[in-house]
Design a protein that fits this description.
0% strand; membrane; 87% helix; transmembrane helix; extended; transmembrane; DUF308_memb; mainly alpha
């Protein structure tokens, strides 16, 4: 714990960076979306190149899947750079369908768990809310993208505040006698 308390300022810097990012995300949501798509494109491109390289180095059994994965990653990265608007919309649709499918799964699980646990209705309500969220994203994709960016911004600010508070608590840490 003493090591952590000596580097309390790292937590403080993380917190400040998160707050700055959150504020910028709220002020410039369009720019934030573009940066996120570019980061995704860079990640997909690099990941695709390395998967492709691994595909040519591995045995015949896993070679095809790695090569396919690498090609898809490279294509996804190129698409993100050439058509960032399309990429951001595709990301929104992935999130929407994920929310709908997991929501349905939670409703089904809640119904099946009715005989096993109490308060299963909370799982069902959570599933229904997830389905509604996904449907709203599909129905209003522009507003959905903006809402997701706002959520990211608010989350970053709250996370930053938590890191700053933690850094202050860790900085003021004094070991209790007899504690290791």
């Amino acid at each position: 714990m003493e090591d952590i308390s000596r580097s309390w300022w790292l937590l403080l810097v993380r917190g400040i960076a998160a707050i700055v990012f959150g504020i910028l995300a709220l002020i410039w949501p369009g720019l934030t979306l573009l940066v996120l798509v570019i980061f995704f494109g860079a990640y997909a491109l690099v990941s695709g190149v390395f998967a492709l390289m691994a595909g040519f180095r591995h045995g015949a059994r896993s070679r095809a899947w790695l090569i396919i994965s690498g090609i898809l990653g490279i294509l996804a990265g190129i698409v993100a750079f050439i058509w960032p608007g399309l990429s951001s919309l595709a990301l929104l649709f992935i999130i929407a369908f994920w929310a709908i499918l997991t929501g349905v799964a939670e409703v089904v699980a809640g119904i099946q768990l009715r005989k096993v646990i109490d308060n299963e209705w909370m799982l069902i309500v959570g599933g229904v809310l997830s389905v509604i969220f996904g449907l709203l994203l599909l129905g209003w994709p522009g507003a959905g993208l903006l809402s997701l960016l706002w959520l990211i911004g608010v989350f970053a600010i709250m996370y930053g505040i938590a890191m700053i508070v933690l850094s202050i608590r860790v900085r003021n840490f004094t070991p209790t006698p007899g504690m290791p």
